[in-house]
Amino acid sequence: MRAADTSAQRRPGWAAWLLLTPLLVWLLAFVVAPAAILVAYSFAERDELGRVGFGFSLENYGRIADATYVAVFARSVGYAAITTAICAVLGYPVAWCLARASENWRHRLLLLVMIPFWTSFLIRTYAWITILKSEGLLNGLLLWLHAIATPLELLYTPTAVIVGLVYAYLPFMILPIYGSAEKLDPALIEAAHDLGCGPWRTFAQIVVPLTLPGFYAGVLMVFVPAIGMFAITDLMGGARVPMIGNVIQDQFVGQARDKPFGAALAVVFMLLFVAVYWLLQRRAAEREPA
Amino acid sequence: MRVCDLAVCGGGVTGSCRNMSLSSPSVFRTVLRSWTAAVLVFLYLPILVLVAYSFNASRLNIRWVGFTWKWYGELWSHAPLMEAAKNSVIIAAITTVLSVVLGTLGAWLLHRHRFRGAAAIRVLVGVPIMMPEIIMGVSLLVLFSALAVPLGFTTVIIAHVTFCFPFVLLAVRARLAGLDPALEEAALDLGATPLRAFWLVIVPALRPGIVAGALLAFTLSLDEVIVTYFTASPGSATLPLRIFGMAKVGLNPMLNALSAIFVVATIAIVIFSERLKRFSR
User: Fold this and answer.
1) How many beta carbons lie within 10 A of that of residue B265, not counting itself?
2) Taking a C-beta distance cutoff of 8 angstroms, is the pair A199, B25 a contact?
3) B30 touching A, CB under 8 A?
4) B47 vs A127: CB contact, 8 Å cut-off?
5) What span, in angstroms and rounded, lies between the C-alpha atoms of A228 and A243?
6) Under an 8 A CB cutoff, do A170 and B251 touch?
7) What's the CATH number where B266 sits?
8) Residues A216-263: tens digit of each pLDDT
9) Judgement on whether residues B79 and B195 belong to the same structural domain of the protein
Protein backbone atom coordinates (compact mmCIF):
# COMPACT_ATOMS: atom_id res chain seq x y z
CA MET A 1 0.00 0.00 0.00
CA ARG A 2 1.45 3.34 -0.99
CA ALA A 3 1.57 5.97 1.68
CA ALA A 4 0.23 8.51 -0.77
CA ASP A 5 -3.13 6.79 -0.96
CA THR A 6 -5.35 8.93 1.21
CA SER A 7 -8.85 7.89 0.19
CA ALA A 8 -11.04 7.57 3.30
CA GLN A 9 -11.35 3.82 2.93
CA ARG A 10 -8.99 1.71 0.91
CA ARG A 11 -8.48 -1.89 0.01
CA PRO A 12 -6.32 -3.66 2.55
CA GLY A 13 -2.72 -4.33 1.56
CA TRP A 14 -0.72 -7.33 2.71
CA ALA A 15 0.25 -5.58 5.94
CA ALA A 16 -3.38 -4.90 6.77
CA TRP A 17 -4.34 -8.48 6.02
CA LEU A 18 -1.51 -9.66 8.25
CA LEU A 19 -2.78 -7.49 11.08
CA LEU A 20 -6.35 -8.63 10.49
CA THR A 21 -5.35 -12.29 10.72
CA PRO A 22 -5.45 -12.59 14.55
CA LEU A 23 -8.96 -11.16 14.62
CA LEU A 24 -10.15 -13.43 11.82
CA VAL A 25 -8.54 -16.50 13.33
CA TRP A 26 -9.98 -15.69 16.74
CA LEU A 27 -13.51 -15.25 15.39
CA LEU A 28 -13.32 -18.43 13.32
CA ALA A 29 -11.72 -20.55 16.04
CA PHE A 30 -13.71 -19.37 19.04
CA VAL A 31 -17.02 -18.17 17.66
CA VAL A 32 -17.74 -20.02 14.42
CA ALA A 33 -16.04 -23.37 15.12
CA PRO A 34 -17.58 -23.89 18.59
CA ALA A 35 -21.05 -23.16 17.24
CA ALA A 36 -20.47 -25.61 14.37
CA ILE A 37 -19.20 -28.30 16.74
CA LEU A 38 -22.17 -27.72 19.03
CA VAL A 39 -24.53 -28.29 16.13
CA ALA A 40 -22.59 -31.41 15.11
CA TYR A 41 -22.75 -32.71 18.69
CA SER A 42 -26.48 -32.25 18.76
CA PHE A 43 -26.79 -34.84 15.98
CA ALA A 44 -24.30 -37.23 17.59
CA GLU A 45 -25.04 -40.32 19.62
CA ARG A 46 -23.75 -41.42 22.96
CA ASP A 47 -22.59 -44.97 23.62
CA GLU A 48 -23.05 -46.87 26.90
CA LEU A 49 -19.86 -45.41 28.32
CA GLY A 50 -21.03 -41.89 27.74
CA ARG A 51 -18.57 -41.28 24.92
CA VAL A 52 -19.72 -39.19 22.03
CA GLY A 53 -19.82 -41.08 18.76
CA PHE A 54 -20.32 -39.02 15.66
CA GLY A 55 -23.15 -39.95 13.43
CA PHE A 56 -26.36 -38.47 12.35
CA SER A 57 -29.38 -39.00 14.47
CA LEU A 58 -32.33 -36.87 15.35
CA GLU A 59 -32.81 -38.80 18.57
CA ASN A 60 -31.65 -35.91 20.76
CA TYR A 61 -34.14 -33.58 19.17
CA GLY A 62 -36.82 -36.22 19.52
CA ARG A 63 -36.16 -36.34 23.26
CA ILE A 64 -36.67 -32.59 23.59
CA ALA A 65 -40.23 -33.10 22.34
CA ASP A 66 -40.78 -35.14 25.50
CA ALA A 67 -43.37 -33.53 27.76
CA THR A 68 -40.83 -33.01 30.59
CA TYR A 69 -38.52 -30.88 28.49
CA VAL A 70 -41.31 -29.03 26.70
CA ALA A 71 -42.54 -28.09 30.17
CA VAL A 72 -39.06 -26.93 31.20
CA PHE A 73 -38.77 -24.82 28.06
CA ALA A 74 -42.24 -23.39 28.60
CA ARG A 75 -41.46 -22.62 32.24
CA SER A 76 -38.20 -20.90 31.35
CA VAL A 77 -39.88 -18.77 28.70
CA GLY A 78 -42.73 -18.02 31.12
CA TYR A 79 -40.41 -16.90 33.94
CA ALA A 80 -38.37 -14.84 31.50
CA ALA A 81 -41.54 -13.23 30.12
CA ILE A 82 -42.81 -12.34 33.61
CA THR A 83 -39.36 -10.96 34.48
CA THR A 84 -39.31 -8.88 31.31
CA ALA A 85 -42.81 -7.54 31.92
CA ILE A 86 -42.03 -6.54 35.52
CA CYS A 87 -38.73 -4.95 34.46
CA ALA A 88 -40.53 -2.97 31.74
CA VAL A 89 -43.26 -1.74 34.12
CA LEU A 90 -40.73 -0.80 36.80
CA GLY A 91 -38.20 0.59 34.37
CA TYR A 92 -40.19 2.64 31.86
CA PRO A 93 -41.11 5.49 34.23
CA VAL A 94 -37.55 5.53 35.57
CA ALA A 95 -36.10 5.79 32.07
CA TRP A 96 -38.53 8.59 31.21
CA CYS A 97 -37.80 10.45 34.44
CA LEU A 98 -34.08 10.23 33.70
CA ALA A 99 -34.53 11.45 30.15
CA ARG A 100 -36.52 14.48 31.32
CA ALA A 101 -34.30 15.38 34.27
CA SER A 102 -31.99 18.39 34.21
CA GLU A 103 -28.48 17.70 32.95
CA ASN A 104 -26.96 17.56 36.43
CA TRP A 105 -29.55 15.23 37.82
CA ARG A 106 -29.48 13.09 34.72
CA HIS A 107 -25.80 12.40 35.21
CA ARG A 108 -26.26 11.52 38.86
CA LEU A 109 -29.28 9.30 38.29
CA LEU A 110 -27.66 7.62 35.33
CA LEU A 111 -24.67 6.80 37.49
CA LEU A 112 -27.04 5.36 40.10
CA VAL A 113 -28.52 3.03 37.47
CA MET A 114 -25.13 2.15 36.01
CA ILE A 115 -23.60 1.00 39.29
CA PRO A 116 -25.98 -1.95 39.73
CA PHE A 117 -25.69 -2.56 35.96
CA TRP A 118 -21.96 -3.16 36.42
CA THR A 119 -22.11 -4.89 39.80
CA SER A 120 -21.82 -8.65 39.42
CA PHE A 121 -25.29 -10.21 39.37
CA LEU A 122 -23.92 -12.97 41.60
CA ILE A 123 -23.22 -10.51 44.39
CA ARG A 124 -26.57 -8.86 43.93
CA THR A 125 -28.24 -12.26 44.08
CA TYR A 126 -26.32 -13.10 47.24
CA ALA A 127 -27.71 -9.90 48.78
CA TRP A 128 -31.20 -11.34 48.32
CA ILE A 129 -30.16 -14.68 49.74
CA THR A 130 -29.02 -13.02 52.95
CA ILE A 131 -32.42 -11.34 53.11
CA LEU A 132 -34.70 -14.24 52.17
CA LYS A 133 -32.97 -17.31 53.61
CA SER A 134 -34.84 -19.03 56.46
CA GLU A 135 -32.15 -17.83 58.88
CA GLY A 136 -31.87 -14.59 56.92
CA LEU A 137 -32.56 -10.98 57.71
CA LEU A 138 -36.24 -10.74 56.79
CA ASN A 139 -37.15 -13.79 58.85
CA GLY A 140 -34.96 -12.48 61.67
CA LEU A 141 -36.76 -9.17 61.57
CA LEU A 142 -40.21 -10.79 61.56
CA LEU A 143 -39.26 -13.14 64.41
CA TRP A 144 -37.81 -10.27 66.41
CA LEU A 145 -41.03 -8.30 65.91
CA HIS A 146 -42.99 -11.40 66.94
CA ALA A 147 -44.90 -11.17 63.68
CA ILE A 148 -44.23 -14.85 63.04
CA ALA A 149 -43.46 -17.76 65.33
CA THR A 150 -41.39 -19.89 62.98
CA PRO A 151 -39.25 -18.80 60.00
CA LEU A 152 -41.07 -18.60 56.71
CA GLU A 153 -39.82 -20.41 53.65
CA LEU A 154 -39.09 -17.41 51.45
CA LEU A 155 -36.13 -18.63 49.44
CA TYR A 156 -36.47 -21.54 47.00
CA THR A 157 -39.88 -20.41 45.83
CA PRO A 158 -40.98 -19.28 42.35
CA THR A 159 -41.44 -15.77 43.76
CA ALA A 160 -37.86 -15.74 44.97
CA VAL A 161 -36.68 -16.75 41.49
CA ILE A 162 -38.66 -13.89 39.92
CA VAL A 163 -37.36 -11.42 42.52
CA GLY A 164 -33.80 -12.54 41.79
CA LEU A 165 -34.25 -12.29 38.02
CA VAL A 166 -35.96 -8.88 38.16
CA TYR A 167 -33.31 -7.56 40.52
CA ALA A 168 -30.52 -8.78 38.27
CA TYR A 169 -31.98 -7.59 34.96
CA LEU A 170 -33.81 -4.34 35.84
CA PRO A 171 -30.87 -2.03 34.97
CA PHE A 172 -30.57 -3.84 31.62
CA MET A 173 -34.11 -2.70 30.82
CA ILE A 174 -33.82 0.87 32.13
CA LEU A 175 -30.65 1.80 30.23
CA PRO A 176 -31.74 0.94 26.66
CA ILE A 177 -35.17 2.55 27.16
CA TYR A 178 -33.41 5.62 28.52
CA GLY A 179 -31.14 5.61 25.46
CA SER A 180 -34.23 5.77 23.27
CA ALA A 181 -36.13 8.27 25.44
CA GLU A 182 -33.20 10.65 25.61
CA LYS A 183 -33.25 11.01 21.83
CA LEU A 184 -36.96 11.80 21.74
CA ASP A 185 -37.63 15.28 20.36
CA PRO A 186 -39.00 17.41 23.27
CA ALA A 187 -41.03 19.36 20.71
CA LEU A 188 -43.25 16.29 20.29
CA ILE A 189 -44.10 16.30 23.97
CA GLU A 190 -44.76 20.03 23.91
CA ALA A 191 -46.96 19.64 20.85
CA ALA A 192 -48.97 16.94 22.64
CA HIS A 193 -49.40 19.20 25.68
CA ASP A 194 -50.36 22.16 23.51
CA LEU A 195 -52.98 20.06 21.80
CA GLY A 196 -54.54 19.31 25.17
CA CYS A 197 -53.06 15.88 25.78
CA GLY A 198 -52.54 15.29 29.50
CA PRO A 199 -49.22 13.96 30.82
CA TRP A 200 -50.50 10.42 31.35
CA ARG A 201 -51.87 10.17 27.84
CA THR A 202 -48.73 11.76 26.43
CA PHE A 203 -46.66 9.14 28.22
CA ALA A 204 -48.85 6.25 27.10
CA GLN A 205 -49.58 7.36 23.55
CA ILE A 206 -46.51 9.36 22.54
CA VAL A 207 -43.55 8.41 24.72
CA VAL A 208 -44.03 4.66 24.96
CA PRO A 209 -44.70 4.04 21.24
CA LEU A 210 -41.77 6.24 20.20
CA THR A 211 -39.31 4.57 22.56
CA LEU A 212 -40.24 1.02 21.60
CA PRO A 213 -36.87 0.45 19.87
CA GLY A 214 -35.22 0.96 23.27
CA PHE A 215 -37.70 -1.43 24.82
CA TYR A 216 -36.92 -4.04 22.14
CA ALA A 217 -33.21 -3.68 22.89
CA GLY A 218 -34.10 -4.14 26.56
CA VAL A 219 -36.08 -7.28 25.76
CA LEU A 220 -33.01 -8.67 24.02
CA MET A 221 -30.91 -7.92 27.10
CA VAL A 222 -33.46 -9.23 29.60
CA PHE A 223 -35.80 -11.80 28.07
CA VAL A 224 -33.27 -13.90 26.17
CA PRO A 225 -30.58 -14.07 28.89
CA ALA A 226 -33.24 -14.75 31.53
CA ILE A 227 -34.44 -17.82 29.61
CA GLY A 228 -31.01 -19.43 29.82
CA MET A 229 -29.97 -18.16 33.24
CA PHE A 230 -29.11 -21.00 35.59
CA ALA A 231 -27.04 -19.36 38.32
CA ILE A 232 -29.84 -17.18 39.71
CA THR A 233 -32.45 -19.90 39.39
CA ASP A 234 -30.05 -22.29 41.15
CA LEU A 235 -29.40 -19.89 44.01
CA MET A 236 -32.90 -18.52 44.45
CA GLY A 237 -34.94 -21.55 43.41
CA GLY A 238 -32.79 -24.41 44.63
CA ALA A 239 -33.25 -27.50 42.49
CA ARG A 240 -37.00 -27.17 42.79
CA VAL A 241 -37.74 -25.07 39.75
CA PRO A 242 -35.35 -26.28 37.05
CA MET A 243 -35.03 -24.00 34.04
CA ILE A 244 -33.72 -24.80 30.62
CA GLY A 245 -30.35 -23.36 31.68
CA ASN A 246 -30.17 -25.76 34.62
CA VAL A 247 -30.98 -28.73 32.38
CA ILE A 248 -28.36 -27.75 29.79
CA GLN A 249 -25.74 -27.18 32.47
CA ASP A 250 -26.56 -30.56 33.98
CA GLN A 251 -25.85 -32.29 30.64
CA PHE A 252 -22.36 -30.78 30.39
CA VAL A 253 -20.98 -30.52 33.90
CA GLY A 254 -23.64 -31.98 36.16
CA GLN A 255 -24.74 -35.52 36.86
CA ALA A 256 -26.71 -36.15 33.69
CA ARG A 257 -23.61 -35.83 31.48
CA ASP A 258 -25.22 -36.24 28.12
CA LYS A 259 -23.41 -33.77 25.92
CA PRO A 260 -25.21 -34.55 22.65
CA PHE A 261 -28.57 -34.05 24.35
CA GLY A 262 -27.30 -30.88 26.04
CA ALA A 263 -26.04 -29.68 22.66
CA ALA A 264 -29.47 -30.28 21.13
CA LEU A 265 -31.11 -28.28 23.94
CA ALA A 266 -28.56 -25.51 23.43
CA VAL A 267 -29.21 -25.46 19.68
CA VAL A 268 -32.96 -25.18 20.25
CA PHE A 269 -32.32 -22.34 22.69
CA MET A 270 -30.01 -20.68 20.15
CA LEU A 271 -32.74 -20.93 17.48
CA LEU A 272 -35.16 -19.37 19.94
CA PHE A 273 -32.68 -16.55 20.45
CA VAL A 274 -32.25 -16.03 16.71
CA ALA A 275 -36.02 -16.01 16.24
CA VAL A 276 -36.54 -13.41 18.97
CA TYR A 277 -33.67 -11.32 17.62
CA TRP A 278 -34.99 -11.44 14.07
CA LEU A 279 -38.51 -10.59 15.18
CA LEU A 280 -37.37 -7.62 17.24
CA GLN A 281 -35.11 -6.36 14.46
CA ARG A 282 -38.01 -6.53 12.04
CA ARG A 283 -40.34 -4.69 14.39
CA ALA A 284 -37.70 -2.06 15.06
CA ALA A 285 -37.18 -1.66 11.31
CA GLU A 286 -40.92 -1.21 10.81
CA ARG A 287 -40.82 1.61 13.34
CA GLU A 288 -38.12 3.45 11.46
CA PRO A 289 -39.59 6.45 9.67
CA ALA A 290 -39.67 5.76 5.96
CA MET B 1 -31.39 10.47 47.96
CA ARG B 2 -33.58 13.46 47.29
CA VAL B 3 -35.28 12.76 44.04
CA CYS B 4 -37.82 15.49 44.76
CA ASP B 5 -35.09 18.01 43.97
CA LEU B 6 -34.89 16.61 40.52
CA ALA B 7 -35.63 19.38 38.15
CA VAL B 8 -37.71 19.17 35.01
CA CYS B 9 -39.25 15.66 34.66
CA GLY B 10 -42.29 17.56 33.38
CA GLY B 11 -40.92 20.03 30.90
CA GLY B 12 -41.33 23.73 30.45
CA VAL B 13 -44.97 23.73 29.40
CA THR B 14 -46.18 22.57 32.77
CA GLY B 15 -45.87 25.86 34.59
CA SER B 16 -49.26 27.20 33.59
CA CYS B 17 -51.56 24.59 35.06
CA ARG B 18 -51.09 23.90 38.73
CA ASN B 19 -54.47 22.47 39.64
CA MET B 20 -54.25 19.30 41.71
CA SER B 21 -56.45 17.11 39.54
CA LEU B 22 -55.06 13.68 38.84
CA SER B 23 -54.19 14.63 35.30
CA SER B 24 -52.19 17.72 36.22
CA PRO B 25 -48.58 17.70 35.13
CA SER B 26 -47.34 18.28 38.66
CA VAL B 27 -49.08 15.14 39.90
CA PHE B 28 -47.63 13.23 37.01
CA ARG B 29 -44.20 14.60 37.81
CA THR B 30 -44.52 13.68 41.47
CA VAL B 31 -45.65 10.16 40.62
CA LEU B 32 -42.79 9.76 38.16
CA ARG B 33 -40.21 10.94 40.68
CA SER B 34 -41.61 8.86 43.52
CA TRP B 35 -41.64 5.83 41.25
CA THR B 36 -38.01 6.46 40.30
CA ALA B 37 -37.06 6.93 43.94
CA ALA B 38 -38.83 3.69 44.88
CA VAL B 39 -37.09 1.74 42.11
CA LEU B 40 -33.71 3.13 43.19
CA VAL B 41 -34.43 2.13 46.79
CA PHE B 42 -35.31 -1.35 45.51
CA LEU B 43 -32.01 -1.46 43.61
CA TYR B 44 -29.86 -0.17 46.46
CA LEU B 45 -31.42 -1.36 49.69
CA PRO B 46 -30.30 -5.01 49.38
CA ILE B 47 -26.76 -3.94 48.44
CA LEU B 48 -26.58 -1.50 51.35
CA VAL B 49 -27.89 -4.12 53.77
CA LEU B 50 -25.32 -6.56 52.42
CA VAL B 51 -22.47 -4.11 52.96
CA ALA B 52 -23.75 -3.01 56.38
CA TYR B 53 -23.97 -6.55 57.68
CA SER B 54 -20.41 -7.27 56.61
CA PHE B 55 -19.50 -5.16 59.67
CA ASN B 56 -21.90 -6.82 62.10
CA ALA B 57 -20.11 -8.67 64.88
CA SER B 58 -22.78 -11.35 65.11
CA ARG B 59 -23.04 -14.07 62.50
CA LEU B 60 -25.73 -12.74 60.15
CA ASN B 61 -28.25 -11.97 62.76
CA ILE B 62 -30.78 -9.22 62.27
CA ARG B 63 -29.71 -7.70 65.57
CA TRP B 64 -26.78 -5.36 65.35
CA VAL B 65 -24.26 -6.54 67.91
CA GLY B 66 -21.35 -4.30 67.16
CA PHE B 67 -18.94 -3.09 64.54
CA THR B 68 -16.18 -5.45 63.47
CA TRP B 69 -13.55 -5.97 60.79
CA LYS B 70 -13.46 -9.64 61.75
CA TRP B 71 -15.03 -10.96 58.52
CA TYR B 72 -12.55 -9.04 56.41
CA GLY B 73 -9.75 -10.58 58.42
CA GLU B 74 -11.22 -14.03 57.97
CA LEU B 75 -11.54 -13.39 54.26
CA TRP B 76 -7.91 -12.36 54.05
CA SER B 77 -6.77 -15.62 55.61
CA HIS B 78 -9.20 -17.83 53.66
CA ALA B 79 -6.80 -19.62 51.33
CA PRO B 80 -9.24 -20.88 48.64
CA LEU B 81 -10.86 -17.47 48.23
CA MET B 82 -7.53 -15.67 48.13
CA GLU B 83 -6.26 -18.18 45.58
CA ALA B 84 -9.41 -17.60 43.49
CA ALA B 85 -8.99 -13.84 43.80
CA LYS B 86 -5.42 -14.18 42.51
CA ASN B 87 -6.67 -16.32 39.60
CA SER B 88 -9.35 -13.76 38.81
CA VAL B 89 -6.92 -10.86 38.71
CA ILE B 90 -4.40 -12.76 36.57
CA ILE B 91 -7.10 -13.86 34.14
CA ALA B 92 -8.68 -10.41 33.97
CA ALA B 93 -5.30 -8.74 33.39
CA ILE B 94 -4.25 -11.05 30.55
CA THR B 95 -7.75 -10.90 29.08
CA THR B 96 -7.65 -7.10 29.12
CA VAL B 97 -4.30 -6.91 27.35
CA LEU B 98 -5.31 -9.39 24.64
CA SER B 99 -8.73 -7.79 24.21
CA VAL B 100 -7.26 -4.32 23.86
CA VAL B 101 -4.82 -5.49 21.18
CA LEU B 102 -7.44 -7.47 19.24
CA GLY B 103 -10.17 -4.89 19.69
CA THR B 104 -8.13 -1.79 18.86
CA LEU B 105 -6.45 -3.30 15.82
CA GLY B 106 -9.72 -4.77 14.67
CA ALA B 107 -11.64 -1.53 15.03
CA TRP B 108 -8.94 0.40 13.18
CA LEU B 109 -8.59 -2.05 10.33
CA LEU B 110 -12.34 -2.42 9.87
CA HIS B 111 -12.72 1.34 9.97
CA ARG B 112 -9.93 2.04 7.54
CA HIS B 113 -10.40 -0.64 4.92
CA ARG B 114 -13.07 -1.69 2.55
CA PHE B 115 -13.13 -5.33 1.48
CA ARG B 116 -15.49 -8.13 0.76
CA GLY B 117 -16.52 -9.91 3.95
CA ALA B 118 -16.06 -6.87 6.19
CA ALA B 119 -19.80 -6.82 6.88
CA ALA B 120 -19.68 -10.49 7.88
CA ILE B 121 -16.82 -9.77 10.27
CA ARG B 122 -18.82 -6.94 11.86
CA VAL B 123 -21.74 -9.30 12.41
CA LEU B 124 -19.41 -11.96 13.88
CA VAL B 125 -17.92 -9.42 16.30
CA GLY B 126 -21.44 -8.68 17.54
CA VAL B 127 -22.25 -12.35 18.13
CA PRO B 128 -20.36 -12.78 21.45
CA ILE B 129 -22.03 -9.63 22.79
CA MET B 130 -25.52 -10.78 21.90
CA MET B 131 -25.25 -14.53 22.37
CA PRO B 132 -26.66 -15.92 25.63
CA GLU B 133 -23.71 -16.72 27.89
CA ILE B 134 -24.72 -20.33 28.46
CA ILE B 135 -24.57 -21.05 24.70
CA MET B 136 -21.15 -19.49 24.52
CA GLY B 137 -20.01 -21.48 27.55
CA VAL B 138 -21.17 -24.87 26.30
CA SER B 139 -20.01 -24.25 22.72
CA LEU B 140 -16.49 -23.42 23.93
CA LEU B 141 -16.62 -26.44 26.22
CA VAL B 142 -17.45 -28.78 23.32
CA LEU B 143 -14.67 -27.17 21.26
CA PHE B 144 -12.12 -27.80 23.99
CA SER B 145 -13.33 -31.32 24.63
CA ALA B 146 -13.43 -32.13 20.90
CA LEU B 147 -9.81 -30.99 20.62
CA ALA B 148 -8.94 -32.73 23.92
CA VAL B 149 -7.64 -29.45 25.35
CA PRO B 150 -7.60 -29.73 29.15
CA LEU B 151 -9.49 -26.94 30.92
CA GLY B 152 -7.37 -24.42 32.79
CA PHE B 153 -6.12 -20.87 32.70
CA THR B 154 -5.68 -20.88 28.93
CA THR B 155 -9.23 -21.99 28.22
CA VAL B 156 -10.70 -19.44 30.63
CA ILE B 157 -8.61 -16.66 29.10
CA ILE B 158 -9.62 -17.69 25.57
CA ALA B 159 -13.27 -17.65 26.64
CA HIS B 160 -12.97 -14.28 28.35
CA VAL B 161 -11.14 -12.63 25.46
CA THR B 162 -13.84 -13.92 23.11
CA PHE B 163 -16.59 -12.02 24.90
CA CYS B 164 -14.45 -9.04 26.01
CA PHE B 165 -12.68 -7.91 22.86
CA PRO B 166 -15.90 -7.06 20.97
CA PHE B 167 -16.67 -4.52 23.71
CA VAL B 168 -13.23 -2.95 23.28
CA LEU B 169 -13.74 -2.93 19.52
CA LEU B 170 -17.06 -1.12 19.87
CA ALA B 171 -15.65 1.41 22.34
CA VAL B 172 -12.73 2.16 20.00
CA ARG B 173 -14.99 2.26 16.97
CA ALA B 174 -17.20 4.89 18.65
CA ARG B 175 -14.07 6.99 19.11
CA LEU B 176 -12.91 6.37 15.53
CA ALA B 177 -16.21 7.63 14.17
CA GLY B 178 -15.37 11.09 15.47
CA LEU B 179 -11.76 11.05 14.33
CA ASP B 180 -10.62 13.49 11.67
CA PRO B 181 -9.17 11.50 8.73
CA ALA B 182 -6.84 14.44 8.07
CA LEU B 183 -4.84 13.42 11.15
CA GLU B 184 -3.54 10.28 9.52
CA GLU B 185 -3.19 11.92 6.12
CA ALA B 186 -1.00 14.61 7.65
CA ALA B 187 1.20 11.99 9.29
CA LEU B 188 1.50 10.07 6.03
CA ASP B 189 2.23 13.24 4.06
CA LEU B 190 4.99 14.06 6.49
CA GLY B 191 6.59 10.74 5.64
CA ALA B 192 5.42 8.40 8.41
CA THR B 193 4.86 4.79 7.45
CA PRO B 194 1.25 3.63 7.96
CA LEU B 195 2.32 1.64 11.03
CA ARG B 196 4.16 4.59 12.56
CA ALA B 197 1.19 6.82 11.80
CA PHE B 198 -1.07 4.33 13.54
CA TRP B 199 1.15 4.09 16.60
CA LEU B 200 2.12 7.76 16.95
CA VAL B 201 -1.03 9.51 15.75
CA ILE B 202 -4.06 7.23 15.81
CA VAL B 203 -3.48 5.34 19.05
CA PRO B 204 -3.03 8.51 21.15
CA ALA B 205 -6.17 9.98 19.58
CA LEU B 206 -8.07 6.81 20.43
CA ARG B 207 -6.75 6.58 23.98
CA PRO B 208 -10.01 7.46 25.81
CA GLY B 209 -11.85 4.78 23.82
CA ILE B 210 -9.08 2.27 24.47
CA VAL B 211 -9.02 2.99 28.21
CA ALA B 212 -12.82 2.79 28.43
CA GLY B 213 -12.73 -0.52 26.52
CA ALA B 214 -9.97 -1.85 28.75
CA LEU B 215 -11.92 -1.00 31.91
CA LEU B 216 -14.96 -2.67 30.42
CA ALA B 217 -12.98 -5.79 29.54
CA PHE B 218 -11.38 -5.96 32.98
CA THR B 219 -14.71 -5.58 34.79
CA LEU B 220 -16.49 -8.06 32.53
CA SER B 221 -13.76 -10.63 32.99
CA LEU B 222 -13.63 -10.13 36.76
CA ASP B 223 -17.41 -10.55 37.16
CA GLU B 224 -18.14 -13.31 34.68
CA VAL B 225 -19.64 -16.54 36.02
CA ILE B 226 -21.50 -18.47 33.35
CA VAL B 227 -18.93 -18.85 30.57
CA THR B 228 -16.21 -19.34 33.19
CA TYR B 229 -18.29 -22.06 34.82
CA PHE B 230 -17.97 -24.18 31.67
CA THR B 231 -14.35 -23.40 30.79
CA ALA B 232 -12.50 -23.41 34.12
CA SER B 233 -10.86 -26.30 35.95
CA PRO B 234 -10.88 -26.46 39.77
CA GLY B 235 -7.32 -25.09 39.77
CA SER B 236 -8.22 -22.09 37.64
CA ALA B 237 -11.51 -21.30 39.37
CA THR B 238 -12.16 -17.59 39.56
CA LEU B 239 -13.56 -15.65 42.48
CA PRO B 240 -17.14 -15.50 41.13
CA LEU B 241 -17.07 -19.28 40.67
CA ARG B 242 -16.05 -19.78 44.31
CA ILE B 243 -18.69 -17.28 45.41
CA PHE B 244 -21.28 -19.20 43.39
CA GLY B 245 -20.26 -22.43 45.11
CA MET B 246 -20.31 -20.89 48.59
CA ALA B 247 -23.56 -18.99 48.09
CA LYS B 248 -25.26 -22.27 47.17
CA VAL B 249 -24.27 -23.77 50.51
CA GLY B 250 -25.54 -20.97 52.71
CA LEU B 251 -24.90 -17.70 54.42
CA ASN B 252 -21.44 -16.61 55.35
CA PRO B 253 -20.50 -13.16 56.63
CA MET B 254 -17.19 -13.53 54.82
CA LEU B 255 -19.15 -13.44 51.56
CA ASN B 256 -20.73 -10.18 52.73
CA ALA B 257 -17.27 -8.75 53.26
CA LEU B 258 -16.14 -9.95 49.84
CA SER B 259 -19.30 -8.56 48.22
CA ALA B 260 -18.72 -5.21 49.90
CA ILE B 261 -15.23 -5.08 48.37
CA PHE B 262 -16.68 -5.93 44.94
CA VAL B 263 -19.35 -3.25 45.27
CA VAL B 264 -16.84 -0.57 46.24
CA ALA B 265 -14.50 -1.58 43.42
CA THR B 266 -17.37 -1.48 40.91
CA ILE B 267 -18.48 1.97 42.06
CA ALA B 268 -14.90 3.24 41.73
CA ILE B 269 -14.53 1.82 38.20
CA VAL B 270 -17.90 3.15 37.03
CA ILE B 271 -17.25 6.64 38.38
CA PHE B 272 -13.74 6.67 36.95
CA SER B 273 -14.87 5.60 33.47
CA GLU B 274 -17.75 8.11 33.52
CA ARG B 275 -15.31 10.89 34.41
CA LEU B 276 -13.10 9.74 31.58
CA LYS B 277 -16.01 9.90 29.14
CA ARG B 278 -16.98 13.40 30.25
CA PHE B 279 -13.47 14.80 30.13
CA SER B 280 -12.62 13.32 26.77
CA ARG B 281 -15.65 14.91 25.14
Assistant:
1) 14
2) yes
3) no
4) yes
5) 7
6) no
7) 1.10.3720.10
8) 999 989 998 999 899 999 899 887 778 899 999 999 987 878 888 999
9) yes
Domain span at residue B33 reads 3-53
d(CA A223, CA B130) in angstroms, rounded, equals 12
Q: Is position A62 within any domain?
A: no
Q: How many CB atoms lie within 10 A of CB A197?
A: 17
Q: Are B124 and B29 contained in the same domain?
A: no
Residues of A in contact with B9 (CB under 8 A): 97, 100-101
Range of the domain at A154: 68-287
Burial of residue B13 (number of CB atoms within 10 Å: 0-12, 13-18, 19+): middle
In this prediction, residue A285 carries a pLDDT of 77
- CB within 8 A of A249, min separation 6: which ones? A230, B134, B229, B230
Which amino acid makes up residue B146? Answer: A
Where residue A163 sits, what CATH number does that domain have? Answer: 1.10.3720.10
With a pLDDT cut of 90, the percent of chain A lying above it is 44
Residues B42, B156, single domain; the answer is: no
pLDDT tens string B43-91? 999 999 999 888 988 876 667 778 888 889 988 998 899 999 999 999 9
Q: Are residues B18 and B144 in the same domain?
A: no
**Are B83 and B210 within one domain?**
yes
- B229 shares contact with chain A (CB less than 8 Å): yes
Ranges of chain A whose pLDDT falls below 70: 1-9, 47-54, 287-290
Model-level ipTM above the cut of 0.90: no
Question: Does residue A184 form part of some domain?
Answer: yes
Residue B63 lies in a domain: no
CB of A245 closer than 8 Å to CB of A230: yes
pLDDT bucket at B12, cuts 50 / 70 / 90: very low
Residue pLDDT, tens place only, B268-278: 988 888 887 77
If one counts the domains in chain B, the total is 2
User: Touching check for A135 and chain B: CB below 8 Å?
Assistant: yes
User: Does residue B62 lie within any of the structural domains?
Assistant: no
CA distances for A73 relative to A51, A241, A265, B67, angstroms: 26, 12, 9, 47
- CB contact residues (below 8 A), chain A span 194-223, against chain B: 194, 198-200, 203, 220
Q: B37 with B176, same domain?
A: no
Closest by Cβ to A10, choosing from B62, B113, B255: B113
**Residue B29 sits in the same domain as residue B126:** no
pTM recorded for the entire structure: 0.87
